[in-house]
Amino acid sequence: MNRDGANESIWQHKTANYETKPGRKADEICDVLIIGGGITGVTTALLLQKAGKKCVLAEAMTLGFGTTGGTTAHLNDFFDTPYYKVIKDFGESNAKLLAEAASEAMTLIKANVEDYHIDCNYETKDGYLFALNENQIKELEDIVESAQKMGVGVGFINDSPFPIPYLKIACFREQAQFQPVKYILQLAAEFEKGGGVIMQNCRVNQLSGGDIVEATFAGGTIKAKHVIYATHIPPGVNILHFRCAPYRSYAIAATLKNDKYPDALGYDLNDPYHYYRSQDIDGKKYLIAGGEDHKTGHEENTDACFRRLESHLKSYFEIESIDFHWSSQYFEPADGLPYIGHLPGNGENVFTATGFGGNGMIYGTISAILLRDLIVKKESKYKDLFSPGRIKPLAGMSNFVKEGADVVKILFTSPFSGEQLKEFADIAAGEARIVKHDGNKMALYKDEQHRLHAVSSACTHIKCSLTWNGTEKSWDCPCHGSRFSIDGEILTAPAVVELEKVNIGEASLSNAERK
What we know:
Elements (H helix, E strand, L loop, with lengths): L29 E6 L3 H12 L4 E4 L15 E2 L7 H8 L1 H24 L7 E9 L2 H16 L4 E4 L10 E10 L2 H14 L3 E3 L4 E6 L3 E5 L2 E10 L14 E13 L8 E4 L6 E7 L2 E12 L6 H13 L4 E15 L5 E4 L7 E5 L5 H17 L6 H4 L6 H12 L13 H4 L10 E6 L2 E7 L5 E4 L11 E3 L4 E3 L6 E2 L5 E3 L18 H4 L1
């Protein structure tokens, strides 16, 4: 299965790309066009179809290519933004709505697994949250007290299934985990079985029109009464790009020497926090752990993130081998809650779902429920809580200012000539750098065959300067999270235009080859 990085996630291993049914074509005008083939898009498409809507799902690459293929797939009814913070910033009634939405999403996922007989290793587990030092105890107490107010099943205990020393620990009952790719691929098959149309390798470049929206892609157009961007962040330039900050999180799947795999979900309260669980895949057990999060494009040595995570695990677990390591992207909302609903600056029939933080599996499912209701019933009890048009200046202003300060525009001038670039041809295989020459900038990478790949160094979104992600072999934007391959292809929105390639001719040869 393809994914948006060079590293293979544990879910990709031995998983083939989804094959769409041949000969399926969209109606002249469909009811809903869903753009994006992760858990949000696939779940939304199926729910809308079951509600009687004729839907088309368009995915720029292949199903599960983005964050769904890289998640660690925890299913929780508590969130990275604790309920006590939601109560403070949004009110207790809205915090109860959030808890209700989480419960509804958890119930839907379990029902889908049972109703469609999905073999995705779905298991109910308890989730343990532990304070590791004195400063974290008050935080844990606030989390537990507010969650109990919301009716969440949580309480303090005196034991832990994790070999990690703690000062205080709480247990959230009835959490869950699953294999996310198998889950969405089966939902996609059910969607197609019911008459839905899936178009993979179909990147929508532009929307136009009013009551009937015309979506343009390389192979033609799709007309729809409603459009949903389930792309993790809407493409183009939008106010939400300044309210959502892109982050990367790192994950490792390891085998243990002593076979003491924790039969639970675990989380510490560090910043950034670490998270753990076990998974049985094809009869083999793995410990899956994640953490070391940082803002996209703001870590020069991404290999060091994996080393720190591995070192952290070896401090507590008897590691036999590291079998998989990968990273994934998420978007952190300024005020702590995602933006789900009408996309600001667009017609009332254009919707989005973004800003899920580290809770994408649940928020993606909540999005499907909410968007179905907005389109079918024109209303949802969750509409105002998650409205992308909401303004919560006190709740989100500090984060808005902090994250927005990283947005620095640059200008990209004319490309280099082949003669100018020869001096850069001797960089090592596997190395990348931003190079300057006579006031010009470009992003340069040499592959293992000593070929140079040269593209513009300015993100096509709003011209921020790109940085190199050495572990995933991609050019990442530190402003709004757009990501590009070594040849400038879009891996992650909001960019909608590929990077300009620079024709460097013989500069792709090594010094020895030129001799």
